[in-house]
Design a protein that fits this description.
With 370 residues, the protein is α/β, with parallel strands linked by helices. The chain has 2 domains: 177 residues, Rossmann fold; 158 residues, Rossmann fold (3-Layer(aba) Sandwich). It is built from 12 helices and 13 strands. Strands 10-9-8-11-12-13 form a 6-stranded parallel β-sheet, with helices on both faces. Strands 4-5-6-7 form a 4-stranded parallel β-sheet, with helices on both faces.
């Protein structure tokens, strides 16, 4: 179960890439995706995949549609790809959907849960949640429900308070078949990029502040204007900050087929997050296109660097330190090339096809066949 394109955010891109590679694995006979509603209601993808548009965002009653569909289909393994807001903006709908995990076990299904949020110490306000005792209790309950499957998969390896049934599978990265998205190589007209969905925890305001402090007429900043469904007003706040600066450009959501063209216009990709609930799919995408990166010094990015990723880091909310990182890279093409090569090697170690094979092994483990 997952959100799925054409919906955006809420793990739909993750679902699309993983399903595409699962479809190519010989040991899998059929992939059935229970996705958010869209027309047509049923569609075939690849050679083995069928998409069933089964549930409505923000509708807690969708749990009954999901149960009925599962009872009809009777899959060998039920794989949930979820987080606290993958079913919409409604906290009730999301909590009810997590209840489906233990319900599936009661109904006799083998259950794998890919839970994308296990972060601790995050600022709930940045995720659109009031920092109240009730909401904290809801987070605890949600994590408890998410680990009621037979196997729980985390995309973060160094996890505090690990559940007993937890396995680590890395986030996938695009496979460029050895190529990279070539750029200007930090010449006199360099471009800095922010890539990803816009939400308050992404800290893009600090990137805009740092860019304006640099006051370089030959430097351009490109921001993907893809507001997360929970934070539709955030991009307007950023546009007001840009204040008509002609060197700051906002571009629309970048579809899968245009990613290479998009990344080819950038020299450095910046991840100025103020907090992060799990690993960064946007970073893995940038690494897959062989881009030099600057990221904030948070545990999830430190973990990625320990696993082989490259980049410069700066403290959260420190625009001056970000300016220093950007100037260091923009004045040092050899350092840019070194980070590009490192990120490309990192991405090749966790392509989506390899990640899908690891999930297949998880399914076999769940079925007692591995």
């Amino acid at each position: 179960m997952t959100s799925y394109p054409p919906s955006r955010a809420r793990l739909s891109e993750f679902g699309y890439r993983l399903v595409k590679e699962l479809d190519a694995i010989d040991g899998i006979d059929e992939v059935l995706v229970l996705a958010d509603e869209h027309n047509p209601k049923v569609e075939r993808c690849g050679e083995k995949t069928t998409i069933f548009r089964t549930w409505r965002p923000d509708d807690p009653l969708s749990i009954f549609s999901l149960i009925f569909k599962l009872l009809r289909l009777r899959p060998d393994v039920v794989h949930f790809s979820v987080n606290f807001f993958s079913m919409g903006n409604s906290r009730v709908a999301n909590l009810v959907s997590l209840c489906l995990i233990p319900i599936c076990r009661v109904l006799g299904f083998r259950v794998v849960t890919n839970f994308h949020y296990f972060g601790t110490g995050t600022n709930l306000e940045e995720f659109g949640v009031k920092n109240s005792c009730l909401n904290r209790l809801g987070l605890i309950l949600g994590k408890f429900l998410a680990t009621r499957g037979h196997v729980t998969v985390s995309l973060v390896k160094n996890l505090l308070g690990r559940p007993k049934n937890l396995l680590f599978v890395p986030h996938g990265a695009v496979n460029l078949m050895g190529n990279r998205a070539s750029s200007n190589n930090c010449n006199n007209n360099s471009t800095v990029v922010f890539f990803g969905f816009l939400s308050p925890n992404k800290g893009v305001e600090y990137l805009i502040d740092a860019f304006q402090r640099m006051n370089d007429p030959n430097l351009k900043l490109v921001i993907t204007d893809s507001p997360h469904p929970r934070f539709l007003g955030y991009s307007q706040r950023l546009r007001r900050m840009a204040n008509g600066n002609g060197n700051i450009v906002f571009v629309d959501y970048v579809p899968e087929g245009q990613l290479s063209s998009f990344f080819s216009q950038g020299d450095i990709v910046v991840f100025p997050y103020t907090s992060c609930a799990g690993t960064s799919g946007a970073f893995h995408t940038a690494a897959g296109f062989g881009k030099a990166t600057v990221m904030v010094d948070l545990p999830v990015f430190r973990e990625l660097m320990e696993q082989g990723a490259g980049g410069l880091v700066f403290p959260p909310r420190d625009a001056d330190a970000l300016v220093d990182c950007l100037r260091r890279l923009l004045s040092n093409p050899s350092l840019v090339k070194e980070i590009e090569d490192k990120n490309l090697r990192f991405a090749r170690s966790r392509t989506w096809s390899e990640v899908a094979r690891q999930y297949f092994q998880v399914y076999m483990k769940c079925l007692g066949k591995a």
